[in-house]
Write a structure and sequence with these properties.
By secondary structure, the protein is mostly helical. It contains 10 helices and no strands.
Length: 224
């Protein structure tokens, strides 16, 4: 069996298990059980990655962490690459869902929605779980071509989301300019990880870095 066919079968299996993100789980049904298993596997994969690093991310360890036989995990994710791809997609979807939930909760104006999402994404740089996951993915992408492509895909979705926020702020801005500004904003947010992330020294010069970065991001988004 070719790698391409294996990947296609994996996507089909995952699609059967998860279905549309907006469809509710029906406990006790085959569909509901499948969706719950996929969620459990991805949650276990994040735990293994954070606690042990990429070297510990094996199908056997993830299955044990998820509390299921290896063969059950392999029905949804036959290979480690299949699992890694879905993990990256799940991370991206989770960020977008959280931003959407925050921005739709009580903020009516495009500027308020934008600022709420940016504040969340900046603050997430301090989260030890999120911080560790991304450092592991960045390190892996340096020497693994497949991981590098996955990370590029994740950031493509990330930039797309920021682009939509900018477009809501500046609806007359050219698409190319919107996308250029989204790249700058993502770079500013991700760059903060080096200074406010997990176990980073708290130097005096960094006292106002989050405030200043937030102001710079807003200026990039709405500037002339």
């Amino acid at each position: 069996m070719t790698a391409r066919r294996t990947s296609q079968q994996t996507s089909s299996a995952a699609a059967r298990a998860t279905g549309p993100a907006t469809r509710p789980i029906k406990p006790g049904t085959r569909y509901g059980v499948g969706q719950q298993r996929v969620a459990a596997i991805l949650g276990a994969a994040k735990t293994v990655l954070v606690n042990g690093g990429y070297s510990d991310l094996t199908l056997r360890r993830v299955a044990a962490a998820a509390g299921m036989p290896l063969r059950h995990l392999q029905y949804y994710f036959p290979t480690k690459n299949d699992l890694l791809r879905s993990l990256c997609e799940d991370i991206c979807d989770d960020y977008i869902a959280k931003c959407d939930a925050l921005s739709s909760r009580k903020h009516a104006t495009p500027r308020a929605r934008f600022q709420t999402c940016i504040d969340f994404l900046i603050d997430d740089n301090r989260d030890p779980v999120s911080n560790t996951i991304f450092f592991e993915l960045w390190a892996l992408a340096c020497h693994d071509d497949y991981a590098n492509r996955l990370l590029d895909r994740l950031y493509l979705h990330y930039r797309g989301y920021i682009s939509r926020l900018i477009a809501n702020l500046r609806p007359r801005l050219a698409r190319s300019e919107v996308e250029s500004r989204a790249v700058q904003i993502v770079a500013l947010i991700e760059g903060l990880t080096l200074f406010i992330g997990r176990n980073k020294p708290r130097h005096q010069a960094l006292g106002g870095v989050v405030r200043d970065a937030s102001a710079s991001i807003l200026n990039v988004a709405i500037g002339r």
